[in-house]
Design goal:
By secondary structure, the chain is mostly helical. It has one domain. It is flat, with a radius of gyration of 18 Å.
């Protein structure tokens, strides 16, 4: 429930505050240009990384491997792309971190640990 509070109230409030500060500091038009620029760059990076991940998954499937790593990469890339298309500096930074492979590893590690904990608690059941 506290995560929902963060997503719905705290993050947008922080984004609005940063946008107001940026607008007062560098001006309204440069702030709007910066927001648009990060969206365009983010869309390009998401497309590039997404295509690489699809190729990697296809290669793993051709070799008879389960593309688990590629699927997690894909989840991070989609989340990063969505965050970059959302206006604001906090979401842009988070989105870029999810798109770059070195920082994406940290996100995947956190996702795997979260899933492991939920499985151990019995919240998620794996049926064979």
């Amino acid at each position: 429930m506290r995560y929902l509070f963060l997503l719905i109230i705290a993050i947008p409030a922080a984004e609005i505050g940063l946008l107001l500060i940026s607008g007062n500091t560098i001006g309204v038009w440069p702030t709007l240009l910066l927001i648009l620029l990060t969206g365009v760059i983010g869309a390009y990076l998401a497309k590039r990384e997404g295509l690489q991940t699809i190729r990697k998954a296809q290669e793993q499937l051709r070799n008879g491997q389960i593309p688990g790593e590629a699927v997690l990469d894909g989840v991070c890339i989609v989340m990063g792309g969505i965050l970059l298309l959302t206006p604001g500096f906090i979401t842009d930074i988070s989105g870029f971190l999810m798109l770059f492979p070195p920082t994406r590893r940290v996100c995947k590690f956190l996702m795997i640990n979260s899933l492991r904990k939920k499985i151990q608690k019995g919240n998620i059941k794996i049926i064979k």
